[in-house]
Amino acid sequence: MQLASLPRLLRLPLVLARFVRRLAPQLAVPLMFLLLLLQAAPRPAAAQDNSLERQVKAAYLVKFAGFVEWPEGSFVRPDSPLLIGVMGADALADQLERSAAGHSANGHPLQIKKLRKGEPPGHLHILFIGALDRASLQELLAAIRSQPMLTVSDSEEAHALGSIINFVLADERLRFDVALKPAAAARIRISARMLSAAYRVVPGGAT
User: Fold this and answer.
1) Which of 25, 72, 153, 156 is the most buried (most CB within 10 A)?
2) pLDDT tens, 37-86?
3) What's the confidence (pLDDT) of residue 195?
4) CATH classification of the domain holding 145
5) Strand runs (DSSP E) across 154-193, as ranges?
6) What is the pLDDT of residues 146-156, one digit of tens each?
């Protein structure tokens, strides 16, 4: 069917689709993260900590898994699961299980593990750290500092103590900061495309 034969209102989606297909491949990841930002559009304050914010955080965690490289030996087999642990945020863990169902990253199926406060994280690839007191945060981050584990938090305190990625609200949208020093200590390589989508990239730790 010719584009000119369609009603004007029906032409726009086709024009946009053709435009997106012509975009350079290097724009794909920034656009993907842009979609997440649009999903986290401004909303009433009463809903900030409810299901939509958890959905966006879960979507980010699923996407992070595909843009991080772990050191050799981090997976037993090429199809071993990529383990994402969640501590101190049970509601997010439940949402993440739904969001990650059927997804894989570089051939590794995503598997979610809900952790109790004080429980050793074991051999995880990603750990989201939720509501923990300062002493627990210090103990946890010190214990896993040299492990090849991508740590993600949503508090400035946890980020200052050594988490690699931290969710932040900027212009009433959910974004993320990245600290490169703890990433290097964990021997984790974060894709340049993912870094380009970050709100802030800190060369050292987030102190």
Assistant:
1) 153
2) 544 444 444 444 578 899 999 999 999 999 999 999 999 999 999 999 99
3) 95
4) 3.40.50
5) 165-170, 173-179, 189-190
6) 899 999 999 99
DSSP 91-156: HHHHHHHHHHTT-EETTEEEEEEEE-TT----S-SEEEE-S--HHHHHHHHHHHTTSS-EEEESSH
Residue 3 lies in a domain: no
Distance CA 72, CA 78 (A): 11
Report yes or no: 140 and 132 within 8 Å, Cβ to Cβ: yes
**Cα separation, 183 vs 155, whole angstroms:** 17
Burial of 2 per CB tally in 10 Å (0-12, 13-18, 19+):
exposed
Which residue segment(s) compose the domain that 120 sits in? Answer: 9-202
The tokens describing 132, both together, are 């923990």
Q: Structure tokens of 151?
A: 């740590």
Residues in the chain, pLDDT under 70: 1-49, 204-207
Task: Quote the CA–CA distance of 118 and 45 in Å, as a whole number.
Answer: 32
